[in-house]
Specification:
Elements: E1 5-6, E2 12-13, H1 15-41, H2 49-56, H3 60-72, E3 76-78, E4 86-88, H4 90-118, E5 122-128, E6 131-138, E7 153-155, H5 160-166, H6 171-177, H7 193-206, E8 209-212, E9 219-228, E10 231-240, H8 241-244, H9 248-263
Antiparallel strand pairs: 1-2, 3-4, 5-6, 5-10, 6-7, 8-9, 9-10
Length: about 270
């Protein structure tokens, strides 16, 4: 026997109907939360609640409710103020590390050695959809140094590790990963796909990608790409522009040597 209850509209509803409604509502919330996380991931500077509402076409009340839940779980973090911007939180990095933790731990000694040799910051990153996400970092001892938070993501076309990985892909695959319009993060960022294709050809020849203040003003970097355990990864060396110019060849040799060492390892 199924017990039915009369709804407010006068129709008869069953427990199975109510369960189905709750299940659909829960799936919808998860889908919207995923959309919000992807939108934040693709915007390095973060997004405000109003920007998320506009981009996703959702009510501000819905955005606020889901963001609050995500912030409680440290999946996002926000800057202070009413118009605070939301960025991916530390739990994202911890979740990512659960799938790459062994690789990160095995590569870290190489990062430490490279950082000691160059006396500069060294980053390890992984291709994560249409962005590059930082998995590990060894900071330089300098007071003036380039530092990105582990778990932070950047567009592929504007940073050395992203361009290094793009150069390993076919033009069609590059198109799939990149947005229709390449945003300019600085006045030096490549914003035209043909120009990026041309630079990718040069990177394939030299095996090293460079970022000349294309991601951030005043910061340059060199990076190399490689594949580990089926994942496309990169190691890069960012530093203030005044220390970078004239050291490109030194950085390139050190990065290529690290890549060769990593390639000789046996990965599970």
């Amino acid at each position: 026997m199924v017990i039915r209850a009369q709804g407010q509209d006068g129709n008869m509803t069953s427990p199975s109907d109510e369960t189905s409604t709750r299940t659909h509502s829960g799936i919808q919330v998860i889908s919207r939360a995923a959309q919000m996380l992807r939108a934040i991931r693709e915007t390095p500077g973060g997004l405000t609640q109003s920007e998320l509402a506009h981009r996703l076409g959702l009510p501000r009340t819905t955005i606020h409710r889901i963001l609050s839940a995500l912030e409680d779980e440290e999946l996002v973090v926000s800057s202070r103020g009413v118009r605070g911007r939301y960025r991916l939180g530390p739990e994202i990095a911890r979740l990512a590390e659960s799938g790459t933790g062994d690789v990160v731990r095995l590569i870290r000694p190489f990062l430490l050695d490279l950082s000691a040799r160059l006396v500069e910051t060294v980053d390890l990153s992984v291709l994560n959809g249409g962005v590059i996400t930082f998995l590990d970092q060894v900071e330089a001892p300098h007071r003036l140094r380039a530092v990105s938070a582990v778990g932070e993501s950047f567009p592929l076309h504007s940073c050395a590790p992203g361009k290094a990985i793009l150069a390993t892909l076919t033009p069609s695959r590059m198109r799939q990963l990149l947005p229709p319009r390449l945003p300019a993060l600085t006045s030096r960022t490549i914003t035209k796909f043909p120009d990026l294709l041309e630079q990718a050809k040069e990177i394939r020849e030299t095996q090293v990608a460079y970022d000349y203040e294309e991601q951030n003003d005043g910061i340059c970097a060199a990076g190399v790409a490689f594949e580990v355990a089926g994942q496309q990864m990169a190691v890069s060396v960012p530093m203030p522009a005044q220390r970078f110019h004239g050291r490109e060849e030194e950085c390139a040799r050190a990065l290529l040597a690290l890549r060769d060492l990593v390639a000789k390892q046996e990965w599970a």
